[in-house]
Amino acid sequence: MSRVHVSIMRRALTVAATAIIAAGIAACGAPDYTYVKNSGEKTYFRVPATWRQVDQAGLDYMTREDNPDSVSAQVRKRMTWSVAYDAHAEPTAAHLFSLTTTDEPIAYAKVVHLTEDQANLVSFDALRNLFLPVSDSARASAFEAGTLLPGFELLVDEVLTPSDGVRGVRVVYNYELPNGVLHTFDQTTYVNNDASVYYMLVIRCSARCYKARAGEIEGVATSFTVRSKP
């Protein structure tokens, strides 16, 4: 074989190898999911890769309970971890907490270390009511206070015992917002054995959105995993 033929063959093999590599990369493509974890808290879940993280400063602002410069706020910050992912093109914590329509799903995870007094109050109903009133007694109290939203429907209520170290509940429920749009809230909350830590994942969107994207949302909800020591 002449040198010319050898050179042509080498170039052909190089082109072929490059094409194979490129095809392999294209086949792999972008990842389907973003895996969210807090290794220290042994808490994990996944969201579709198209969902984007909500600005943490905005999320902290929307969830503040007292003056951020206060001692109690600093203590609370050390005892709490939170993160949110939004399917909307413009992710914002407002899609989680506002009384306007959320037309694409948003997921909010939170881990909170409790004081001894708080731990003594933990029950399955307390876990159900962490985001919005769900139990009969909690909704009655909200009604008396004039803060209860209308249109409540309880769709799912199940006790979860995924391991010896944690137990919890999953509730899925509807509330009608002031604009008349029914919204669905999918909430999973765990607590460790001594009730010193709770772990919560809430997914929210309009009822129509929830039905249309049920498989996608179910995948996020069921991926929520806590591996806590007993």
UniProtKB/TrEMBL annotation:
<protein>
    <recommendedName>
        <fullName>Lipoprotein</fullName>
    </recommendedName>
</protein>
<feature type="signal peptide">
    <location>
        <begin position="1"/>
        <end position="22"/>
    </location>
</feature>
<keyword id="KW-0732">Signal</keyword>
